[in-house]
Automatic annotation (TrEMBL):
Protein name per its UniProtKB record: Ribonuclease BN
Gene that this sequence comes from: rbn_2
Nucleus in keyword set: no
PANTHER family: ZINC PHOSPHODIESTERASE ELAC PROTEIN 1
NCBIfam families: GntH_guanitoxin, TAT_signal_seq
InterPro entries the record matches: RibonucZ/Hydroxyglut_hydro, TAT_signal, TAT_signal_bac_arc
Listed Polar residues bias regions: 9-18
Amino acid sequence: MSKDDQKPNEPSSNSQGRRNFLKGSAAAVGAGLAASVPGVTSAADSDCEMKNPYGPRPGGGISLPDYYKPWPAIKNRNVFMPGTEILPKNEMRISFLGSTPWPPTRLQSGTSILVELGNGESQPRRFFFDLGNGSISNAIAMQVPAPLINDIFISHLHSDHYADLPYFYPFRAFSGGYTPLRVYGPSGRTPELGINHMIKHMKEMNRWHEENFNSCPIGDGMNIEVTEFDWKEENGICYDKDGVTVRHWPRSHVKDGASAYRLDWEDAGLSFVWTGDGRPDELSAKYGKDVDVFVSEGTIDVPQLSSMKLGAPAELWEYTIDIFHTMYYASGYLFKQTQPRMAAICHYEYAGPALEAESTAEVRSNWDGLFMFAGPDVQVINVTKDAIWSREALLPDGAAPASMDPRWLLKPGEKLPAEIKLPTPRLPREMQQEQFLRDLEIDPKKYYPPDAYRKPVQKWPGITLNPRQMLEARGIKVDDDK
């Protein structure tokens, strides 16, 4: 029968449906069966040669090392519960506050990675790599105090890597962050394409907001100290303080001015790499060597399937991947070149359950070691010299910020004083609002119940905190020598 004679709903002679496949006779088992089904190959038992790269571990899987295990500082082995674990000295914790470029979903916010270095105290040292859209909500839910969100390293100026910055910095000052915010990032081919220019105009865009919040005690919190480094520099140092060094190198991401970062913590002998966005490159393979945790961006390489799902031509997906991004095959290749103790992919679009196996298979085509995806938000990795453990953070949908601690307002090493005076507002309301608008306000006595009425406070009263009293109310006793 020719194709022209074939009925519209009749399968072609070489079509192999799942039901027909399962109805095949036992005689078809083996090489003959495999040959009759496109995409299926025969495999004898001896062909299965996958081995655990970390050595034989019966019952331990084929990609898990013996150092993948929890330890006493891990309070809950299954989930990370913010505010319940003190990060010990010489321990690093990496939290993926956001993990996608586009589209944002309820599972994934814009890209942001928090690296915390333990000092045995309630507030570890913190470094933020990118600050994508929605990531601040996860930082707050993780009980990171807003005033202590600082040292933000922007990999490049795509908005999914810094979109929360213009939203966040005025509210940080409003919340007690009275010291300048520190931001680091690359220059561009011209001055107008560097992070200095972006921050300058971001603040201009926010002028109304800044002046409005200057009616509150904000100190120097809305000042931003920008460290702009040369985007061309290879393995340049952009941060070097108290035993922590952050280095950078350029990446190929269509436009000049995209960078990768490596953090090295000398005291603990631990390290972290975030590639940012870009094509697979030799510099990331070189400078990521032997890092503890190597995080790459990643993209599934199924342009034909993307075309069927979303309607756009496959060539569009191919072009986008091939000039902007690192496909999962290449992420696995970079992991193989750098040999990290833990590999992870952040800045990826979760493609759904049906494609999880394909995504993993593409990575596994080159990397057979310890590996994870950074989503859904928030995945957490704890790292010591001897062990690594990963969990998902347990976050309530309506998480409140961390309770205010007057010690946040002190400089490093400063002893707790008897009193802390809050900064005086620079632009009180009467300096930036015309009187007729205040005259339009409804008399509070009209809407307050009589036994709830209080006289409105509309002039800055001058506020002084008693830090010991505040801490004692929370059951915290402070040594007078500290």
